[in-house]
Amino acid sequence: MLKFFFMIMFMNFFIFYKNIYWMVQNFIFLISGLFMLKISSSYYFCEISYYFGLDMLSYGLIFLSFWICGLMLMASENLVRNSNYLSLFLFMILFLLLMLMFTFSSMSMFMFYLFFESSLIPTLFLILGWGYQPERLQAGIYLLFYTLLASLPLLIGIFYIKNNDFTMNFVLLSYSKLYNLEFLYLCMVFAFLVKMPMFLVHLWLPKAHVEAPVSGSMILAGVLLKLGGYGLLRVFSFLQIMGMKFNFVWVSISLIGGVLVSLICLRQMDLKALIAYSSVAHMGIVLSGLMTMTYWGISGSYTLMIAHGLCSSGLFCLANISYERMGSRSLLINSGMLNFMPSLSLWWFLLCSGNMAAPPTLNLLGEISLLNSIVSWSWLTMISLAFLSFFSAGYTLYLFAYSQHGKVYAGVNFFSSGVIREYLLLMLHWLPLNLMIMKSNFCMLWI
């Protein structure tokens, strides 16, 4: 692991050179290629140093972080043209990538907490520095306060566990079973529920997405929402007894919230707000499956986290491509794009079908596993799941049909084609999403 840490740390010196932007992006893809060779069939931690290690759960999420960060640079070409504090932008992305690597490979719970919170700082700077509108200040404050307030009890919970179990190592803690400590359970779980985000504590996410630049939206949807799921997967190894008592609360909120958020999606006029709310609905079903603590639930939630990271990030790229041409994210102005940019319509179709879990995407595998686990947990959940699946298809078709069909906005009287960089960017989102289902046993291997 150390070679990857050092490689990213020393890449920070690149930012002082001129015209180095694409070199940094190529190096990130090189690192992801090298990291791909590190794949191990070990279920337990390997590549162990004093504080850092890698298991199957970490591997997929670190690889996703590398991939999305490389694509973030590819999507942000406008910054290169405008030279808009380019060195600082590169530093933020490299710092964020380093923090995410540290977070996913930490073996100590305190180290995990430290880097989990540190990843918030570069995200906040991305929104504040390169966001579109003055409301980005309010969005940044929402993001900061929601996540920081919820994670303070987590710190207290970690110190409580250290005092009682004399360790903060995840491997050793998995043999510890904590009984009848309701307050501790709430402390440990709540920070991750906000980060997912669970319905009722989700308001920071649409605000942050709408105000963030395309790179900020990609990393938020692609990786930062997965921090919550990853944290829950780690802490439930020693909170199983408490989870069996109280998890029904979170499952109920998530499923009902998923249906309500799907209805909210159907009345959105902003492209990015619609995709952001759809992320909340998808994370609701991930959270429900994870909270059942069954084999299918945990494997399915992990699979859907990876799939959603690629699919949602790709949709944000598409929304940004339309925004760059039209100067607006409104569906009223972005209607009839089939006439204006016909070559992009295929990509809208492919990524929208991924968003509604159509075969052969990885989303389908994740959703089938989650439906299995949630219905086997309680047959009553079938009602919410039926509505959730139906409305999920509903708002995705609404997004596709409204943006691609209909009358073209009156101000548009010319034809536009995408550039090769944009097609490559979309291809690199879509290919892994559809190829990984061919090796679907890998997603279910770690448990």
TrEMBL record:
First-level EC class: translocase
Which BP terms from GO are recorded?
ATP synthesis coupled electron transport; electron transport coupled proton transport
Q: What is its EC number?
A: 7.1.1.2
| Keyword Magnesium in annotation | no
Per UniProt, residues of the NADH:quinone oxidoreductase/Mrp antiporter transmembrane domain are: 106-391
- Entry keyword annotation includes Mitochondrion: yes
Please tell me one Gene Ontology term that the record gives under cellular component. Answer: mitochondrial membrane
Q: Name one GO molecular function term.
A: NADH dehydrogenase activity
Q: How does it sit in the membrane?
A: Multi-pass membrane protein
Q: Which InterPro entries match?
A: NADH4_N (IPR000260), NADH_UbQ_OxRdtase (IPR003918), ND/Mrp_TM (IPR001750)
Q: Record's superkingdom?
A: Eukaryota
Subcellular localization: Mitochondrion membrane
Q: What does this protein do?
A: Core subunit of the mitochondrial membrane respiratory chain NADH dehydrogenase (Complex I) which catalyzes electron transfer from NADH through the respiratory chain, using ubiquinone as an electron acceptor. Essential for the catalytic activity and assembly of complex I.
Family, per entry: Belongs to the complex I subunit 4 family.
This chain belongs to which protein, by name?
A: NADH-ubiquinone oxidoreductase chain 4
Annotated organism of origin: Culiseta inconspicua
